[in-house]
Amino acid sequence: MSKPGILFFLAFSLFYSCVSGQKENSAAEQNENFSPPGQADIEFEEEFDYISQLEKDIVGEWVNVSMKVWVKTYNNSDTSFIVDINEETWEMKMNVKPIITMINEDGTYISEFRNSFDSLIYKPEGFWMIDGDTLIMEDHQAVYKYQIFIDGDMAEFKSLLDWDKDGKADDEYTGLQRKNK
To answer: What is the mean pLDDT of each run of 10 residues along the chain (181 residues)?
Structure first.
């Protein structure tokens, strides 16, 4: 498990044990909302297994396949539009090759943006962690949060972001990436 994953697990375990004890004692005193012994443990184990599996599945080299952004209030106006890019149109519309991101087991990541001549033009790097079904990536400029769904070698990333830089994170982003390694 990655270092951020271990820290999250320890913090979650401490929080869960404190809250769980409060809920069970309170429910036993009031005799309502009381769940059978062991049920909460099973739910916790299932959530931990899910997070642990996502942490394992996300590690590797990922390349952008497509993305769609619904810009809802372009420059704070009532104008909206959809940016729709696939593998065939990526380079032409984005002026870069599909982005390659290496997500490492140690909780770090590096993305590479390359131009049409395959020259490296931008290389953000930082740290990642999983929180529930959300991938959190932090570099020196910002923190990015994506709800992720992984099926085999394909991953779907969803987020609300400020695509049009109007000060509102109200633009709906959906991106597909394919695992290379």
So the answer is: 39 35 39 51 58 91 96 86 93 94 97 95 96 94 94 96 89 96 63
Q: Parse the chain into domains and list their residue ranges.
A: 3-56, 59-179
All residues at 6 or more sequence positions from 66 whose CB lies less than 8 Å from its CB, including other chains? 84, 85, 86, 87, 90, 175, 176
Q: Cα separation of 120 and 142, whole Å?
A: 21
Closest C-alpha to 128, from 89, 157, 96: 157
DSSP 64-124: EEEEEEEESSGGGSS--EEEEE-TTTHHHHHSSPPPEEEE-TTSEEEEEEE-TT--EEE--
* pLDDT given for residue 77 in this prediction: 85
Domain at 59-179, CATH homologous superfamily: Calycin beta-barrel core domain (2.40.128.20)
Question: What's the pLDDT at 60?
Answer: 97
Would you state the pLDDT for residue 102? 97
Helix axes 39-58, 3-30, angle to 10 degrees: 160
Q: Return d(Cα 52, Cα 61) in angstroms, integer.
A: 18
Number of Cβ within a 10 Å radius of residue 157: 20
Q: What is the pTM of this model?
A: 0.70
Report the number of secondary-structure helices (H) and strands (E) in the chain. 3, 10
